[in-house]
Amino acid sequence: MKKTFTLAVMLFAIYLGVAQENILQKNKWSIDKAENWYAKHDWMTGANFNPSTAINQLEMWQEATFDPETIDRELGFAEGIGFNTMRVYLHSLAYKADPKGFKKRMDTYLGIANKHGIKTMFVIFDDVWGKTPKIGVQPEPIIGTHNSGWVQDPGDPASKNKKNFADLEVYVKDILKTFGDDKRVLMWDLYNEPGNTGKLVSSMPLLKSVFTWAREVNPSQPLTAGLWAWDFHELNAFQALNSDILTYHNYNDEKHHQHVINLLKSHGRPMICTEYMARTNNSRFSNILPILKKEKIGAINWGLVDGRSNTKYAWNTPIEDGSEPIEWFHEVFRKDGTPYRQDEADLIKKLNTEDDE
């Protein structure tokens, strides 16, 4: 009896695996569809956007701290140098606390971005930084410390607990059904840096699940999850083979970045670099942006305006007195809209507008 039960469980698991694989492949975009979609868009350039008044995703999206005035002003800075795309992180806890209000705030944000000629790539889940996100008042930034308040979504061990998956499925499907035909939404980045913060392949079940849920909804916009750690072979293979548009992160110099581009071209899909530009790593606008323009690869740098995220400070190298770094790590603008470096702002604007001249 025990052997029969065990065999039945194994067969059911195999059935579920096959069913999931069928769903994943059913609505995946062909290369031709991806190329046709990409060709209809201007060169995509912009930033990962968190308003300067928000330390993290929760502070951006919760009702008490949602700040449309700052969002409007700072997206105006972006518009001024020709940026047309923002990558913006959501958070499932903000949705869980207030589903209708959360979606209303998303709509408000999209209206502001659209006014500035900016489309948005929303990020669903995230494995980076703080492991235990909590709804409510967020902590104050640690002085001089990079991203001291950023939080994972749904967290650790929350992302590994399959008991949480039912609620996460409701969240993902509701968001995608609500905005899945919204022309203000460029695409859906389903999972930022799966496996980061020591999670490794333990992130695979949620990664597979979020792609499955998204394919079941089948939004009109493409789906992706960016490659970021080149030794994460199992995760990378799944992300690359299930993304409609290939996305990736690279914070290295131009030689390494070009090498990655050359390797990723083998997939034959349009590409967007969804994170780059860390000045003290020699990933700069001056040496990376022209390559991405030449290769016709979308370019989304980390950070727009210096603020509570403190990402002008480098990873793991805090400045305890909070003084100005010798060179900013990320960000394009100061809070008043003045570019950190005018030559960078001029280059960005030139590359974003030269085809129109």
UniProtKB/TrEMBL annotation:
Gene3D superfamilies in the record, alphabetically? Glycosidases
Keywords per UniProt:
Glycosidase, Hydrolase
Domain Glycoside hydrolase family: residue ranges = 81-303
A Pfam match is Cellulase
Q: Which InterPro entries match?
A: GH, Glyco_hydro_5
The record's similarity note reads: Belongs to the glycosyl hydrolase 5 (cellulase A) family.
Recorded protein name is Cellulase family glycosylhydrolase
Gene source species? Maribacter confluentis
